[in-house]
Amino acid sequence: MSNIKNTHDAARLLGRFHLWLGVLFLIGCSSQPAQKDGSGEKPDITIQVGSLNLSSYNKRIERTELRKLSGILKKEQIEVLAVQGITRYPGVDTRADFVNELAKMADLNSAFGEMVNNSGRQMGNAVFSSYPIRSKFNQSFEKVKSAKFEAALQAVIDGGTREVHVVAAQLPKSSLEDQISCIAAVSSSIKSEKSQAVILTGNLPTSKRALSGSGFEDSHARSAANPENRIWYVSNEALKLISTRSVETEFGPMIVAKFGLFRQQLP
């Protein structure tokens, strides 16, 4: 009888063991869809974008300062840099050319958009990129009260997985309404689709009213020294914000935002 009882006990234990295996299998199966949820999807690549505004920088630009900035870009692994309010003197050997010399020192591609040209003294915006720059478009702001002829340079960058529209904009400080009008003009000219990766940089307004309805989100990266220097972006399936920070440079604070870039989904 004891042998029969032992046999029954072993059978019950084996049955319970198989039951637990079945439960664990069902739990494992039920958890599979959650792993495929897009909310935890990793980007195909990450891209670090910096924004630097020189409109209030009144000192003469020296090559030593550009070399230091180049070193910071390499150290911080900045792949795209948008600079607003640049003053340059092309063809004048005694002057350090911010655009050409920084591009050469940091081994970056560059695009420049002119706002003003006064007897060879240029003012404008630029985009630097370690990725190829496929095209550029310099957009002037019409029907805006300003004597500085502010504009926005749009550069289309080949990010490998998809194109990225990076805008370096210098907005007029005349009124909030003018700034909102300029932002709307930029959005309209890009002809933004839901699947496009769009990043807007510059002296963007701090008012929440300007952000509301613009289609952009604020990266919340800024510094106390220059709170108007901001990075906005269109949050969609193409572009996700990962982190933000501020880095000090010889030319003032540089705002840096790290984005995740996602490959375009096939229909």
Summary tags:
alpha+beta; six-stranded mixed β-sheet; disordered N terminus; 267 residues; 12 strands
Give the arrangement of secondary structure elements.
Elements: H1 2-35, E1 45-53, H2 63-75, E2 80-88, H3 98-106, E3 109-118, E4 121-129, E5 133-140, E6 151-158, E7 163-169, H4 176-190, E8 197-203, H5 208-211, E9 217-218, E10 229-233, E11 239-249, E12 252-261
Parallel strand pairs: 1-2, 7-8
Antiparallel strand pairs: 1-12, 2-4, 3-4, 5-6, 6-7, 8-10, 9-10, 11-12
Structure description:
The chain is globular and about 50 Å long. The longest helix is centred in the N-terminal third of the chain and has 34 residues. It is an alpha+beta fold and 267 residues long. The strands form 2 sheets. The chain has a 6-stranded mixed β-sheet with strand order 3-4-2-1-12-11, covered by helices on one side. Helix 2 packs across helix 3. Helix 2 links the parallel strand 1 and strand 2. The N terminus is likely disordered. 28% of the residues lie in helices and 36% in strands.
